[in-house]
Amino acid sequence: MALLIPTGHLSLEICPQPDRANIPPRSPQACSGVAALSLKQPTVVVGRLGGSATLLCTASESVSYIHWYLHQEGSAPRRILMLDMSKSYVQRDGGFSADKITAKKGKESNSCELLVRKLEKRAEGAYYCAAWELTAMLFGPGTLLRATDKNPDEDISPKPTIFLPSIAEVKLHKAGTYVCLLENIFPDVIKIDWKEKNGKTVLESLQGNTMKTKDAYMKYTWLTVQQESMDREHKCIVKRETNKKSVEQEIFFPSINKKDAHVAELNVPSPACEPVTLAGETNQWLLLDLLHLQLMNTSAYYTYVLLLVKSVVYTIIITIGLLGRGALCDNEKSS
């Protein structure tokens, strides 16, 4: 069963292994077999720094043990503890002390609660519950834990800034690009779709990487509209998860051929969400520069790695040459 980390993080496949305590990740092979057991987990839990957070796991049928795994960005998933459901005994694998993380049976007979106390930023990550059914270990969908110094139950809508197509782009390419910049995202569990205003079909669009800001996240997405669709209005749909519910926010874009007539309408604040900021062509090119900068940073990273590898190889070759030269000189002196 796949471990799907939210907001574009690493996706791993975990399959059953003989050593049940430490199961190494495999990707992208799928585990074979169909199981009746299923595990449910909330998508995200937000807790206050220094406080506590409870992560729930509910099994569809009775299980003897529930295992908890933690997956943090940049490292492989690791088991942190196992709960004996019949004896309420917790076996820990290290990394967290009993006063920081523990587990207990939930209110329902087949449920388990993972308690994270004295919440710190280093405890953030994706937590997966798992249970064995015959010879297969089955995993839940995972819960993303985030810590904040604000009220964790406060519903904060992302602040959208929209960028309309430039006249030059429309004339040159016979197409226009809508760009939506989303700021003040927290937690970073969102799904973005584009549709025509009154349409049901999800349109093909692109998204940039989720970027960390001071105490939240930002993300941008864009949709290219071809000439035959320029008379139609479009919308960007942002679905996000909070502690209590799923929230959907719609951001409307005027038709490209009539965009000037709708500018005033876009600046009217909606009581249900953050006001929409309309950016001009100058700011649009600044955002496109941001996209180019991200691509350049990625290319620069891989170029640096390649140069580093070449440097190591050259150092080894020169060292071998110098050692060989010294040995040759010693042989000449002895002869």
From TrEMBL:
Could you tell me which InterPro entries the record lists for this protein?
A: Ig-like_dom (IPR007110), Ig-like_dom_sf (IPR036179), Ig-like_fold (IPR013783), Ig_C1-set (IPR003597), Ig_sub (IPR003599), Ig_V-set (IPR013106), TRG_var/const_region (IPR051117)
| A single GO cellular-component term on record | membrane
Q: Transmembrane segments in this chain: where?
A: 301-323
Claim: Membrane is one of the keywords in the record: yes
Question: SMART domains attached here?
Answer: IG, IGc1
Keywords in alphabetical order: Immunoglobulin domain, Membrane, Receptor, Transmembrane, Transmembrane helix
Predominant location category: membrane
Short name of any one Pfam family annotated for the protein: V-set
Where does the UniProt annotation locate this protein? Answer: Membrane
Pinpoint the Ig-like domain residues. Answer: 28-131, 158-248
Give the protein name, as stated in the record.
Answer: Ig-like domain-containing protein
Source organism (scientific name): Suricata suricatta (Meerkat)
